[in-house]
Design a protein that fits this description.
By secondary structure, the protein is α+β, with helices and mostly antiparallel strands. The protein folds into 3 domains: 198 residues, Collagenase (Catalytic Domain) (3-Layer(aba) Sandwich), CATH 3.40.390; 121 residues, Trefoil (Acidic Fibroblast Growth Factor, subunit A), CATH 2.80.10.50; 160 residues, Trefoil (Trefoil (Acidic Fibroblast Growth Factor, subunit A)), CATH 2.80.10.50. The chain contains 6 helices and 30 strands. The strands form 8 sheets. Strands 7, 8, 9, 14, 27, 28, 29 and 30 form an 8-stranded antiparallel beta sheet that branches. The longest helix is centred in the first third of the chain and has 21 residues. The two termini are 28 Å apart.
């Protein structure tokens, strides 16, 4: 994936920790880590130079781009067109395709979707050749609907800000899946991504793929400094030879997360429309929870899970008072915000979830049950379904197979395989800690280990803020669930990247490594019913409610980033 670099290094972007592909760092390498970190950050300043087509990443809100339609009625079916799907539905396919891909995977929000009004004074001026943060009133991306030819993106990245017809989509020559592919591909360009065939390391002998192409007539060429995130990828939605996928490849996901970052801790996304579960932290008891675009406003979307009480809570900025997600005991249907009372109607459980990790792939047990874990495409098969079982007196959790017979297990130290083994070990005591302390490794529970911890099986882990699953203060190390791959510093220069079949291990924790980040995707259960949003669950304001659990109900699938 070729990404044009911004003109300066974003102060909000995390520095990269060097990481060995195999084994544990030697003492000498450990001594070099601080120096290498400073060197990597300094190099980042140089590598981020160039035309600056990427949008600026902020610490306080997602990259929010206002999208509008220049000619929305042009999406209506033509006379004699075989597919008579309404124009409104075709435009909605485009919007939802972006919500289920770029928006689901990273801190990106495409909003607006009205008829273009063409404001007279956008701020800053349009066509800027550098990273910028769009004003809330600006129409950043203008779509022209066409009925002939292919789709185009003449306004690549932030260069297309406020550009007339900056994205051109032909919504008249194929089917829903093709329109979705066109939208995902063209808005990949909106985010500053190039075609895979334009990479400097693109091979010339990939069967079915065009050779390297450099369209030097475009205003954003030549690229003075490219940033290659992971090895070349013929399956990328940005590759001409990928076959027109309507989903992102694992390397697409890892690449967009590396620049535009994963969702902030506490995000709980309803999958049909990638809406975040929201509630006003300062509201009165009984106010309904609802779905809203993931705008990260006012901490009203940052749900913390407390393994000691099984509660999901938010808190008002500057306050230490927790407000809990609560099932209304009058009808057991409405979901609301309430003072935390630790009742049964405020206890939540993750059931029938897949554990998504590096590149959106899923933690998968062997077909036979027990054995080493690998990363595979997410299918929701029995070998990928897990449940989260909390320990009431500690902050630790077990990750069990949905049947409850197998557990995620660590046997050995750094570099040892992550295993699925029978849940038959004795629970190791630990110091009790509140969930609010889990963002700091130094404050995490210390397992009471025997003299030779590598000879024991550990089935209990900490869910550390930022999406990490680990055993902290394990002897002299903090060890985290880790997908075996190159260091992030190598990933950002064109090496490695997530692929199906990668080995999963326990490795020393590095809080910036993408291949140590995890999330749950599946059902959230309370009082034997499942959380969902009402209706189609794709519109802002959709009310949160409880319903009988169904494995086929799309609105009962949630992504949780702890």
């Amino acid at each position: 994936m070729r990404l044009q670099s911004p003109g300066y290094f974003s102060i909000f972007r995390r520095s990269f920790f060097p990481r060995l592909a195999l084994g544990k760092p030697t003492p000498l390498r450990l001594l070099l880590v601080p120096a290498l970190l400073l060197l990597t950050t300094t190099l980042g300043l140089a590598l981020m130079g160039g035309l600056g087509l990427m949008w600026t990443v902020s610490s306080t809100e997602p990259v929010k781009l206002v999208v509008c339609w220049e000619n929305p009625s042009a999406a209506n079916p033509l006379v004699g067109e075989a597919d008579q799907t309404s124009g409104a539905q075709r435009r909605e396919w485009v919007r939802l395709a972006l919500k289920n891909t770029w928006e689901r995977e990273a801190r990106i929000l495409f909003t607006g979707w009205d008829t273009c009004q063409n404001e007279a004074s956008p701020s800053p001026p349009p066509y800027s050749m550098g990273p910028r943060r769009p004003g809330t009133a600006d129409e950043n991306i203008k779509i022209l609907i066409t009925a002939s030819g292919g789709s185009q993106n003449p306004g690549h990245g932030s260069y297309g800000d406020y550009m007339p017809s900056g994205v051109r989509l032909n919504l008249h020559h194929a089917s829903q899946s093709w329109y979705e592919y066109l939208a995902i591909h063209e808005f990949g360009h909106v985010l500053g991504l190039y075609h895979e065939e334009e990479r400097s390391d693109w091979p010339s002998n990939i069967n079915g793929c065009p050779p390297q192409s450099w369209p030097t007539s475009w205003p954003w060429w030549p690229v003075p400094t490219e940033m290659l995130w992971g090895a070349f990828d013929r399956n990328s939605v940005m590759a001409y030879c990928s076959g027109g996928p309507d989903a992102l490849s694992p390397k697409d996901i890892a690449g967009v997360q590396r620049y535009y970052q994963r969702h902030i801790p506490g995000s709980l996304l309803s999958l049909p429309g990638s809406l975040c579960l929201s509630a006003h932290a300062a509201a009165n008891n009984g106010e309904r929870a609802f779905g809203w675009a993931c705008d990260e406003a006012l901490d009203d979307q940052e749900w913390r899970f407390d393994p000691q009480t099984d509660a999901l809570f938010i808190q008002e900025p500057g306050s230490t008072t927790h407000r809990c997600l609560d099932v209304n005991t009058v009808n057991y249907n409405d979901v609301q915000i309430w003072s935390c009372l630790q009742g049964a109607n405020q206890k939540w459980a993750f059931r029938s979830v897949v554990i998504r990790g590096y590149g959106g792939l899923c933690l998968t047990r062997p077909a036979g049950g027990s054995g080493s874990l690998t990363m595979q495409s997410c299918t929701g098969s029995a070998a990928q379904l897990w449940r989260v079982v909390t320990q009431p007196t500690t902050s630790l959790v077990q990750l069990q197979s949905e049947t409850g017979t197998l557990c995620l297990t660590m046997r050995g130290g750094s570099g040892s395989d992550a295993l699925a083994l029978p849940c038959n070990s004795i629970f190791l005591p630990s110091i009790q800690k509140s969930a609010s302390a889990l963002s700091d490794a130094a404050a995490l529970p210390r397992a009471a280990l025997p003299a030779n911890p590598s000879a024991n099986e550990i089935h209990e882990f900490v869910m550390s803020s930022g999406g990490m699953i680990g055993v902290f203060n394990y002897g002299s190390d903090n060890l985290c669930l880790d997908v075996h791959d190159v260091w992030d510093s190598s990933f950002t220069t064109g090496d490695g990247g997530p692929v199906v079949g990668q080995r999963v291990q326990f490795f020393k924790c590095y809080f910036t490594q993408l291949n140590q980040k995890w999330s749950f995707s599946g059902q959230l259960v309370s009082v034997n019913r499942c959380l969902q949003l009402d209706g189609a669950a794709t519109a802002n304001g959709s009310a949160a409610e409880m319903a009988p659990c169904s494995s086929t109900a799309a609105q009962q699938k949630w992504d949780y980033h702890w």
